[in-house]
Design brief:
Helices cover 23% and strands 48% of the residues. It is built from 1 helix and 7 strands. Strands 2, 3, 4, 6 and 7 form a 5-stranded mixed beta sheet that branches. The longest helix has 19 residues, at 2-20. The radius of gyration is 17 Å and the shape is globular. The N and C termini lie far apart (58 Å). The model has no long low-confidence stretch (mean pLDDT 85).
Length: 82
């Protein structure tokens, strides 16, 4: 019984810590392909983090779980460029 209690406590602690570490954003655009006009390439599966009127981060799609926002746009199949 003690093992189950310890395991449950550890899981609750881990979930609490994980959710507390998420970075807040005003807007998240995910699954977007970025057009790199300087190099003439496309960069798929990226997320763009926007706070206010500023892009604060561009990251790999796998990092989406590190962020939270009330406004999220799924841009799968869409392109974005500067």
């Amino acid at each position: 019984m003690r093992i189950i209690f310890a395991l449950a406590s550890g899981i609750i602690f881990f979930v609490t810590i994980s959710s507390a570490q998420k970075k807040k954003a005003d807007l998240i655009i995910h699954s977007v392909t970025i057009v790199d006009v300087a190099n003439g390439k496309t960069i798929p599966n990226k997320i763009i983090i926007i706070n206010g009127n500023t892009i604060t981060a561009v990251a790999d799609q796998r990092q989406l779980s590190n962020y939270t926002s009330r406004q999220i746009i799924d841009a799968k199949g869409k392109f974005i460029m500067p």
